[in-house]
Amino acid sequence: MLDSAQSPLAIHHGEYMNAELLQLAQRMPKAELHLHIEGSLEPELLFRLADRNGIRLNYPDVNALRAAYAFNNLQEFLDIYYIGMSVLREEEDFYDLTWAYLERVHRDNVVHVEIFFDSQAHLDRGIPLEVQIGGIRRALRDGLAQLGISSKLILSFLRHLPEAHALETLALAQPFLDQLDGFGLDSSEIGHPPEQFARVFARCRELGFRVTAHAGEEGPAEYVRQALDLLRVDRIDHGNHSLDDAALVRRLTAEGKILTVCPLSNLKLRVVQTMDRHPILTMLERGLKATVNSDDPAYFGGYVNDNYRALIAHLPVTREDLYRLARNSFEGAWISEEAKATYLDELDRAFATDRRGARDMSRRVAGRAI
Ligand code: ADE
Ligand code: ZN
Fold this sequence. Notes:
This is Adenine deaminase. One of its GO terms (cellular component) is cytosol. The structure is a single chain. The chain is α/β, with parallel strands linked by helices. The protein has one domain: TIM Barrel (Alpha-Beta Barrel). 53% of the residues lie in helices and 13% in strands. It has helices spanning 8-27, 43-52, 62-67, 74-84, 91-106, 119-123, 129-147, 163-172, 198-206, 221-229, 246-254, 263-268, 280-285, 297-300, 304-314, 319-331, 337-369, and strands at residues 30-36, 110-117, 150-158, 182-186, 210-215, 235-238, 258-261, 289-292. The radius of gyration is 21 Å and the shape is globular. The two termini are 17 Å apart. The model is unreliable at 1-13 and 360-370 (pLDDT under 50). The structure holds adenine and zinc ion. Zinc ion binds at residues 34, 36, 186, 214, 237, 295.
């Protein structure tokens, strides 16, 4: 008897399944909850902005810059990421950056985004919050008006800087609080545990903001625990190393905590060695509310749908997994219950329509295979 890997029918079926899943992943509505806007700065735009602002780059062209995007760990990426964002000077630059991202993910059927910006990195270069927030917010407004994409804006504190710096930034942000929807924590993780930011996060929560933190990307499960206990986060960004601690997984599951997982990022930063060893399906199996996100798409090889595509190509993803991942993205969004219900209805409709299409397609493929 043929084993399934050799059976022509199985191959047909496998190909059909992948094609169907790819199409479904592409056209299902989804939210992106983990996106650093500076990480969506494509080399072409980076060069254009450098030119516009009279900045000389150390790379002769786009190809040379792209060739430098090979990383062994998070820090190697961050070193080049902070250099890249130095071309952002004017309000218009932040607008162009954000608008380019929105136009791009509109094609991926992303209908809601929650984006981080690294305000301290720009402040340190002398770019006022007004310029940063003004440009990003104007593009987000246009994104809603012209593309129908709703959005939230999250100021993310840099954990390689002292907490005092974060507290100063929060004070500077006072006049702009009505334009912010939450606070986060990112940058170099190991050696900068969440406990170092307990005071600034407490202040953000007192002000009525939602909070999230990168934890368990390179750092241990203990950092995820600290993010929960000491920062009282609403979500965990990445959270991969939670899986090392069964009690923590049970807790995250019981609390229904959303994990904003970033598969291509994990591969590029060597958090996972190969995509077929990515733990996202294990997370779902254990009841964790994982979502799919792109993190820094210009640096890691793709946007949200590229992440779905990589998962489908390398893991036994099912239709139910896709549904669960997209559903989690809306459940974890910082939007009203009404908005959630509307998006979840849209999602259900996409899957219901697809089911009819899939049955027709299945008959056609089966006919050909026999
Ligand atoms: N800043 C931008 N991308 C990041 C990531 N993946 N981890 C930590 N900080 C980041
Ligand atoms: Zn991130």
